[in-house]
Specification:
The chain is of the alpha/beta class. 37% of the residues lie in helices and 19% in strands. The chain starts with 5 loop residues before the first strand and ends with a helix.
């Protein structure tokens, strides 16, 4: 089998119908790019949805036993399984949600052809909920005090609910990096985690998906590796996607999710913010 130019990793966590629609209506219609899809089963109500998809497209691989490995943990599991049966990567790896819609059928082709300009990249992501642009996730590195503040917020659930409500109001009534004003920020600190593009150079220079947190904070984890190994993180204005934001995890997260967020921040602070 010819080595694909793109490896696309999707994580199924009780959203098998969404993944089915995304693959059928968004991915398989993409033109000009050779790609392979691995779906990691982190939890599913009806595995038959994914089985039907695999029967129709035999080059789609479904792995996992319904164990929730987290988003980055599932990506790490998929990449390691892929590398057991494939030659070394020479293309790009995409880790993404399924609540997305491409604005053009050559989006994957553009990602592959522009890969010489970046180690990690993110497209122009437009939220369908509030029409705001989600990339750049951050142009500059987060300060340690900011992360400590957020960890405090996530330590008390009522405090988190109040903070999240105010954050939502702020996002509704303020602009966030409209695409026509972001050209000066083509190289940035971090891209949004819902669609992350990894050139093979990311792994060759020392990057990995072996995240010490369970869920959340993946954007900072990737950004800090890029910072450590002097890698380029690029905002790809040439590729535009619509994001049906928070359709998987919900706008307000549960107390269990908040504990995971706190634990992930604690790991990130201890790993990358020593000073």
């Amino acid at each position: 089998m010819e080595h694909p130019e793109l490896l696309i990793i999707l994580v199924c966590y009780f959203n098998e119908k969404e993944i089915y629609r995304f693959v059928r209506k968004q991915l398989v219609v993409q033109e000009g790019a050779n790609f392979r899809i691995i779906i990691v089963n982190n939890g599913t109500r009806q595995l038959s949805e994914l089985t039907v998809l695999q029967q129709e497209f035999p080059w789609i691989e479904i792995i996992g036993e319904g164990i929730n490995r987290g988003y980055m943990g599932a990506a790490s599991f998929a990449l390691k399984q892929y590398m057991k049966s494939a030659s070394p990567l020479h293309g790009i790896v995409i880790l993404c949600n399924a609540d997305l819609e491409f604005s053009a059928t050559d989006a994957l082709f553009k990602m592959a052809t522009e890969s010489s300009d970046y180690d990690v990249a993110g497209p122009d992501l437009e939220s369908t909920r509030n029409k705001k642009h989600l990339n750049p996730f951050s142009v500059l590195r987060f300060t340690k005090s900011k992360l400590l503040f957020l960890r405090t917020i996530y330590s008390f659930y009522p405090l988190y609910l109040m903070y999240q409500f105010l954050s939502v109001m702020k996002r509704i009534f303020s602009k966030r990096y409209p695409s026509n004003q972001a050209e000066g920020a083509s190289y940035i600190y971090a891209v949004h985690g819902s669609f992350m593009i990894f050139n093979h150079t990311f792994f060759e220079k020392g990057g990995s998906f072996d995240y010490g947190g369970f869920l959340f904070g993946e954007e900072i984890f990737i950004a800090e590796q890029c910072r450590k190994y002097n890698m380029k993180v690029k905002y790809l204005l040439s590729v535009h996607l619509y994001h049906y934001e928070h359709s998987t995890t919900g706008l307000y997260k549960s107390p269990r999710h908040i504990r995971w967020m706190k634990d992930s921040l604690s790991w990130l602070i201890s790993e990358y913010y020593h000073g």
